[in-house]
């Protein structure tokens, strides 16, 4: 029943968005009343949630539907009635947008999104900023700004760590500090492996009616073409990305070599005077905080570039909050939707041609190196690293500096 109710609300919301711009005040009232009457019991609340039209207004419309007097033809004079909050309080929409989703608006003060807020909490935050507003008004304004309730499927990946929020705050402050000093702050991760060949790729693409692109029935890997592992580096502050398309194993050596490729191809020119780099990464995978080879390879990179490499890992079970996931990888998937990845070059070209209205630019290159798996790192090698752990969760937050042997 709850799923059906949600579908009805979404349907009314979509319908209202289409017709409301063509209706006057009375027309919108009658529309809401008609929908509520058709639903029956509970219809007024459902229509309110779908349109934001007040319960009293909907009841007034229902009363008008049941009368034949000519008074129902009256429409309030244009400009009459109480002014809307957004028109009276000029800073209201801007502040609300900031609290809801500051990171996707490019606000340098909130480079990482680490929390979500209910309409009650948003109203409270706005009141602290000096705005006179209720929870219901926040709800209506969110609809006006184009926000909708979204599913939270595949967001929680495990049990929350008790210091989850503290770690997010810690990372957020570190990123702000580095950006203030004009030092690179990058988000890194491996995109899922992709089969190369004439295989189905999720999504739809325009084609002549009745003539879809034909692909293989089964997705068994082509032993000659194999798979590719795209490893991405996303510059959080500048909205630019780099992807190394690996043909071998997704190892720590491959991950660090991808960061190396980003530096020489993109980062060095932009941050030529910077002596430090901040990397935000998941806690697992080839760049996991427990992976010894990851730290050994970062030491080599630090020695090679002569810069400090600072690393902050997201807590366990929070990989979906990694910036690269929804700032870069999601757009790559959209760009190649419905297109079979026939060759490795196809993958590289499709990635490099991914752009957004907000200015995302990506460079991509094929990494044909072969990376070994199962490399063991001894305790002696670990002891030789020039690594310094932070006081707060040193296993997640640490700095690797050029070793004296490299000088």
Description:
- With 407 residues, the chain is of the alpha/beta class.
- The chain folds into 3 domains: 2-73; 85-144, no CATH class; 164-406, Nucleotidyltransferase, domain 5.
- 40% of the residues lie in helices and 12% in strands.
- It has 14 helices and 9 strands.
- Strands 1, 2, 3, 4, 5, 6, 7, 8 and 9 form a 9-stranded mixed sheet that branches.
- Strand 3 and strand 4 form a beta hairpin.
- Helix 1 crosses helix 3 (43-51), helix 7 crosses helix 8 and helix 10 (252-270) packs parallel to helix 11.
- It is elongated.
- 30% of the residues are buried.
- The model is unreliable at 102-116 and 151-157 (pLDDT under 50).
What's this model, at a glance?
The chain has 407 residues and is of the alpha/beta class. It has helices spanning 2-19, 25-39, 43-51, 55-65, 85-88, 92-100, 119-128, 135-144, 164-180, 252-270, 292-305, 323-335, 344-352, 379-383, and strands at 185-190, 194-195, 227-235, 240-246, 276-281, 308-313, 361-367, 387-389, 397-400.
Distance between the termini: 69 Å
The CATH architecture of the largest domain can be named as 2-Layer Sandwich
Low-pLDDT parts are 102-116, 151-157
Mean pLDDT: 82
Supply Rg: 27 Å
Summed up, the helix count is 14
Q: Please write the string of helix (H) and strand (E) elements.
A: HHHHHHHHHEEEEHEHEHHEHEE
Which percent band covers the strand fraction? 5-15%
Main beta sheet: 9 strands, mixed
- CATH topology type of the largest domain: Nucleotidyltransferase, domain 5
Oligomer: single chain
Structural category = alpha/beta
Total separate domains: 3
Number of strands: 9
Helix content: 40-55%
């Amino acid at each position: 029943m709850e799923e059906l109710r949600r579908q009805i609300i979404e349907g009314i919301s979509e319908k209202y968005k289409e017709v409301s711009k063509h209706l006057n005040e009375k027309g919108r009232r009658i529309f809401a009343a008609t929908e509520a009457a058709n639903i029956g019991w509970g219809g007024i609340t459902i229509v309110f949630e779908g349109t934001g039209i007040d319960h009293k207004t909907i009841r007034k419309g229902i009363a008008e539907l049941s009368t034949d007097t000519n008074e129902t033809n009256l429409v309030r004079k244009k400009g009459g009635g109480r002014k809307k909050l957004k028109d009276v309080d000029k800073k209201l929409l801007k502040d609300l947008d900031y609290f809801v989703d500051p990171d996707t608006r490019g606000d340098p003060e909130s480079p990482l999104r680490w929390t979500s807020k209910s309409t009650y909490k948003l109203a409270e935050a706005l009141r602290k900023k000096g705005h006179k507003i209720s929870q219901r008004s926040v709800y209506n304004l969110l609809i006006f700004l184009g926000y909708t309730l979204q599913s939270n499927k595949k967001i929680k990946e495990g049990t929350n760590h008790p210091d989850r929020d503290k770690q997010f705050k810690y990372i957020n402050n570190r990123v702000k500090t580095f950006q203030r000093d004009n030092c690179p702050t990058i988000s890194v991760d491996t995109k899922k492996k992709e089969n190369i060949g004439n295989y189905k790729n999720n999504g739809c693409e325009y084609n002549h009616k009745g003539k879809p692109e034909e692909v293989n029935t089964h997705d068994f890997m082509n032993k000659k073409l194999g798979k590719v592992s795209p490893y991405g580096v996303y510059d959080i502050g500048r909205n630019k990305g780099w992807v190394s398309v690996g043909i071998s194993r997704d190892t720590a050596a491959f991950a660090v070599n991808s960061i190396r490729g980003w530096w020489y191809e993109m980062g060095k020119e932009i941050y030529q005077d910077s002596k430090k780099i901040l990397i935000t990464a998941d806690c697992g995978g080839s760049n996991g905080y427990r992976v010894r080879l990851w730290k050994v390879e970062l030491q080599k990179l630090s020695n090679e570039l002569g810069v400090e490499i600072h690393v902050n890992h997201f807590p366990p079970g929070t990989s979906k909050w990694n910036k690269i996931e929804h700032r870069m990888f999601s757009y790559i998937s959209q760009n190649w939707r419905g297109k079979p990845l026939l060759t490795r070059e196809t993958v590289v070209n499709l990635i490099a041609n991914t752009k957004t209205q907000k200015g995302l630019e990506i460079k991509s290159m094929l990494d044909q190196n072969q990376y070994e798996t199962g490399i063991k790192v001894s305790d002696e090698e670990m002891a030789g690293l020039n690594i310094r752990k932070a006081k707060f969760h040193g296993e997640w937050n640490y700095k690797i500096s050029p070793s004296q042997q490299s000088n």
